[in-house]
Amino acid sequence: MKNIRKTIGLATFAGALAVAPLAMGAGTANAESGVDWDAVAKCESGGNWSIATGNGYYGGLQFTMGTWHANGGSGSPSQASREEQIRVAENVLRTQGIKAWPVCGRRG
Prior knowledge:
signal
C-alpha cells in the first residue's frame, strides 16, 4: 500500500510539473515575442478588443484592414478574438517591428 501511495504521489507531482507551464501562460498577453499586448491595447483602444469607431482602425490593437489581411487576419479585427488579434500582431511584429504601434508599442 505504501508503494502505491508513493507511486500515485510521484505521478501527481509529475503531472503538476507538466501542466504548470501551460497554466502559467494562460490569460497573459505576452506572446512568443514577450510583448505585453494587453498594455498596447490599453493604450491603443482603452483595452477594448472589439472597438470599431469608424476611424479606419479596428480592434484592440487598432489594425487597418490592409495590415490585418496582409498578416493573416480574416474578417474584421473588431470581430476577432483577443487571441486572434495577438496572433496577427505577432506576424506584424515580425515584418514591421514594434514601430507598427509608434506610440503605444513602447508600453508593451
